[in-house]
Amino acid sequence: MLERLKAVWTQWSHLIVLGGFLVSYMIGFRYWSVYQADQPIVSDYQRYVTYLVAHSPKARTYEETYFKEQGRQTIASRHFEHVCAVMTALAIEDGFALAHYTDFPAQWCFDRAAYFSEFLQPK
Predict the structure, then answer these.
(1) Assign residue 70 a region: left if phi > 0, alpha if psi is -120 to 50, beta otherwise?
(2) What is the DSSP track for 96-117?
(3) Cα–Cα distance between 102 and 122 in angstroms, integer?
(4) What is the pLDDT of residues 99-123, one digit of tens each?
(5) Which of 44, 72, 91, 109 has the fewest CB atoms within 10 Å, i.e. the most exposed one?
């Protein structure tokens, strides 16, 4: 039996090692991508969200609810599109005009509001 395993290893060792490397790489990439998605949003995006929170009570309430439901004090990168869309729509209800903040494409966030419900938090 041991001789048979040695023969298989000798014949297929390159493919076994390659397969092990590929599986390890896929598992590592999965964990790395989840880690990256949970990182806080970049500072340019954070400035826009902070501006919305400062000028809209509804956006402030939504951000507080997000933090409470997600159990974190920053917005995760994976949730930015959803949070930005909903907070922009809520800020517009409070009188925010897209032209008020020119350093960030507020129109982009507003266009995505059609895809998200303001009553649902991101998963």
Answers:
(1) alpha
(2) --GGG-TTTTHHHHHHHGGGS-
(3) 26
(4) 888 878 788 888 888 777 655 666 5
(5) 44
